[in-house]
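Complex record, two chains
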Amino acid sequence: MVRPNEEVEALLREYADLVLITGGDAFKARAYEKAARAIGGHHADVSKLDAAGLREIPNVGRSIADKVIQYLQTGRMPAVEDVRSKVPAGVRQLMAIPTLGPRKAMALYEDLHISSVPELLDALHEERLRDLKGFGPKTEENILHGIGLMQAAGDRVPVNVAMDVAEEIVAELSVLSGCESCTYAGSLRRMRETIGDVDVLVAAGRSAPFMDAFTRLPGTAEVIAHGMKKTSIRTTKGLQIDLRVVPPDSWGAGLQYFTGSKAHNIRTREMAVHRKLKLSEYGLFHAESGKKIVSQSEEEIYARLGLPWIPPTLREDRGEIAAGLRGELPALVTEADIRGDLHTHTDLTDGLAPLDEMVEAAARRGLRYYAITDHAPNLSMQRMTDEKVLAQRERVRELDGRHRKMRLLHGTELNIDPDGNVDWPQEFLRDFDLCVASVHSHFHQGRDALTRRLVTACENPEVNIIGHPTTRLLGKRPGLDMDLDVVFAACARTGTALEINAHPDRLDLSDELILRAKRYGVKFAVNTDAHAPLHLAYLRYGVGTAQRGWLTAGDVINTWPLARLRRFLDKKGSAGAPSSS
DNA sequence: GCCGTTTTCGGCCCGACTGTTTTCAGTCG
């Protein structure tokens, strides 16, 4: 069910963690991490590579290539199994708690025999961590806070993980005979940022063949329920998937019902009741006679309720019903509207692929323009220099001449320092086509300082886009504590766009913050922040999030033709004129 | 364990912050 590259990546990451937990060589662990990342981001399917092919992947040498080959041939990696047998799985799980790394996880296991999050919680409540060397009251507080963050995420998975599984299942079921329609519904269809369980819907006359095939899918770990209308499984990764088979005639009603959200469905059912109708997953009926009115398509059902078809990404009871009744639903931005990507990396800094490969991949996706924005020197771990970035610019200009259909922009991702200043003097920045600026450290300055910091960055005439504006990481790190209304107002005033970072671990800004920012007249840029060609495909999640924020193509600067985009980028540099669109 | 070489070892991203410590270990980006 999972791409072999990702399986291998996960195994190598696990090995790296276990090396650290067992006190092994930190450089060895890093070597495995780097190889894991490179394989995860590698364009070719590793299961189709031989040892020589594997070793062409950066950071994969003889030892790791051999282990990967062994795994691909036998399904096992003995080195990982060895070290697994020494450390209970729960100890590694402890490392998922922010601020709890391998050393502390190890200490908890060795000294207190703690090997799971619940055990750790018990120990915390019984104050058993107090006697442990290196664990003070603040550490306790941080661990509790970290566990809270993780539990808030619950068992939900990032949207891309659910999407990959769902699309594979839909593909498998769609080819069975008797399948008239098949798709995923639920929060995944609404493109929520995390997914609790996946709903798959099939329209067919007979349900049994689909239910049976479903329970036999590779990657099924457990069949939770097996019926004629609904079957639920749990995958080996712990994700629950529900399959529902409806008669072809009920397709629209089923899709509407199982797409949700619950709040949206309550509103639509209320509307039905007011019209002396009844709406269920089987159709829209006369309340009294029970006679079916419509059920075949969502459009028919919404129409009979006096509504236009409502895009799934809006179905959250956030005013979409009222807007629909007024005929004022927004024409949401779509993936096809996106003409360019304005935030991407290469292996000149922390990307995985060289410039040429990133550009080729972008061109294959049909983009009309593409910005390369590697990290600037102040993020010192990336080792950027003036010479390197200028050499890159020359190379970008050369490549630009080669692509007829796609123009290349040379930009950079600046680091917003604690005072709101960025890398390089103004005159150096002026020669970039665009500058993204982002916060990468000093997250806990306090609300006032953080607000000032972001406003200062917006006021910099060379800064065009604020990258991943809150710096949140889903399930790991909350967003910066700042006065967003002040920041949004500053963006609107200075013609600085806010990024909607499409990476599934970020989706930053979030849908709700997009809605808030839009009221200030802010413009947005949906960017992938790609570090490998594969990441360019994350665009769909950024677009989904933009849709959930009710954005139209007009709100998103990278849907604009290049000439208009350039005017937006230039306008800021010339005398700080306000943004226009 | 990988990489590069001035090729077979020595360096590996580096700095800052936090909390605990009393000079530093662990974690993070």
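Note: DSSP finds 24 helices and 17 strands in chain A.
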